[in-house]
Amino acid sequence: MSFEHVGDVESLLRSDRVSVRDLHAIWAQRQPVPDPDQRKKADGVGRPAPQIAWLQQDIALARLFTRHALAQEEFLLVWDAAREILRLDPADQNDPTELVRVRMDYASALTRLGLTRDARSVIEPCLDPRSRPVLGRRMQFAILLQLGDILREESQHVAAKATYVRTAEQALGFYQRALALDPTQLDALVLTAAAAFVLGEEGSALRDEARSKARDVVTRVNAREDDEGPSLDTTWARATALTVLGDVQAATRHYELLQTIENVTTAQLAERRYWAQFLAEALGQPRDLFKSAFPPLQLIVFAGHLPDRPGERVRFPPESIEGARESLRKQLDTLQARVGLVSACAGADLLFAEALLARGGTVHLVLPWSKEEFRRTSIEPFDLPGPPVWQPLFERAIDGAATIREIGQVYEPSSDVGWEYMVEVSAGIALYTARASRLDIQPMVFWNGFPGRGAGGTDSTYWFWHGQLQEQPIIVQPPAVPVDHDSVGTHEPWVRRCERSSMHQEVKSMLFADIVGYSKLTEKVVPEFVGAFLGRVAQLIATSKHAPCSVNTWGDAIYAVFDFARDAGLFALELAQLVQEGRDEWLALGLYWELDGEKHPLNIRTGLHAGPVVMHYDPVVRRLGFTGSHVNRAARIEPVTRPGEVFASEEFAALAELGAEIERRRQSAGIGHDTAGDEGFVCEYGGTIPLAKGYPGRYRIYRVVPQRVLALEDLARAQHDSYCAESRMRGDTPLTNRSMRPWEDLTEDLRHANRANVADIPDKLRLLGYELAPSHGMRPSEIIITDADIEMLAMREHDRWMAERRRSGWTFAPKRDDARKHHPLLIPWDLLTEPDKVRDRNTIRDLPLLVERAGFRVRKIV
To answer: Which residue spans within 633-754 are E strands per DSSP?
Structure first.
């Protein structure tokens, strides 16, 4: 689709139904908002259609765009669009509140992508009374509810109970603030009831509050439905309230009614099923307690036979096409299929896409190489003389697909390795697509049960999902065709000989790194660069357990090859950390460049990609080397990476996701490796951008960051040791202060209090204007905390401690009695003695030390 002017864009965005393909077409023709980011310039590619400045001309259109993209669950497109829209100056807008709404859409997308801390930092500042524009009650209410959703989502993904409790408390607090702002809103009442129920223990005041509010929900729903009839909101509210009240049968009936609501979407059902899981757990029941009340909400990952060509073994002849079409239709009807991910090869793939689209379902296409090359290799050769069968189906699949991904192959794979790579990258994409959309994953194959004609085919897909991911694919049998059993018996599996040429293809992960500032060094410090800087890199390669299997350097460039994506990601982070932590040494050695009188030590930019490469013996340098089109692709990522960071391709992210999921499932089955103490990494979406040096196309890029969590147990122990040391300085003894015991001798109640304290670290930092950064930030010791900050946070810490103690059943008494849970300090801050206030102030002063001990850096909240 092509647009001529902003009116065409507006007409489509203001229509009732906008497809994902429409959104991508609009976005492709926008006139970009300039990016102030000072990265090495990436060469763009020519655009076939004129650019339209609809972003700059009408902020309302920009917000319509993100709203449509969010409704279609195109979270990556929301990310791309919102980041660009928010570069606009609010002062230039007729309605700057539209930019706030874009922020809200952006935060929703970040939440679904798992970036909850980023999501919170995007919208929470909008509630600051000093922020502009000043928001009305309705927008404040909406933001409070969204912040509650963000914190509720975050609470479900933390391992430590203390962190879970603290995060869930904050979610409840936002819901309560929203309800106080507008007590008439049903959604605020429902969410407050549900959050209180999940957080509270049986018999607690929170559970009583939850049930009281649930009864109010039922009363309000009855009144509204008497006037307006049932709706999605009222039916869900009643189901939630009945769950809180413990009436599982009635709740199940109302969850079942959700799918009967007119125009209800798969996304809406999946979201409500997702949150019903946590209510089920709060009831002490399995997470899937209400699963049967919902329709099957699955991402079906499909693979099937190609059509037979003359001279090939009979498997899928032309006369069986109609039978195959009917078999697939019936299977999708049985599954109530809604969403599928498939390639678009001639044969079963296209029949699957046709059947799913006919049901009104959503099709995600994954093409292993460019569309036109794919048409030439995987569609046209299968159309026999006469009216074409597969080319029209291919065009309809392309036109009807919600999304189309092109994996970074240039041409059809030349070996089994390339085909296996396609299967695994597609599986990785399917895993994180299903997770973001709250869908179950269900592989399906159209397969005759016999070995295939080569790697990467239907049988490879079946055995990969069955063997590696322990998922049982649904098998759709092809229509019966005559089988020459004698012929089948002669097709023995090919066994590779033990000898083979050094020149062969393997899937590898590749790292390209460039030293930022090297070209600005003077000649006299080159020896220091080689001896000290590269010496440190060499030492890392020699000692890291994630070291590459091959490495080469060209001046300031590093090219390394790894067997596994996990090792490549972890080594890249180790390399970035080495350079960051050596900043003082680089300055002392003169390894810096100056700008405006400021010295900038050497930094590093790192790009990662994974794909099939040709391993060969290089006769020039007389060593093994790796080459191929994927090496070129990897080299084009590094120049667009921000200094100090690690960027990666979507293929790398997919293989890393797949490897992590396989290991998780193996550990669940008790057969995985013991990775205790190993830190992993996550691939966070970083935008769709062109690569360097005119590399054709635009590509999804991910930021590789360490997967670190606050080591609550270690930090809580360290804080307790610090408390004991301070108490001794004040003259306390174990006789006068029963908390002055070794950590192992503390009651579980007091250990929990210490854990709750350190679990509050992220929020204390947030109030100081900082957030935790796994890497690429400032040292916590560089945080400047004023006396006013210390006093404010100390008062807040005392209030937090009192709330935590009261939840645990403690009450005020003039004399402390741990057995009876009596404590003399359960009093307002103003009534504390000065020594007791000093203790809370010291807790705040020690905050940077604790954060640094956890291995984190921090960054300013923008």
So the answer is: 646-649, 680-690, 698-707
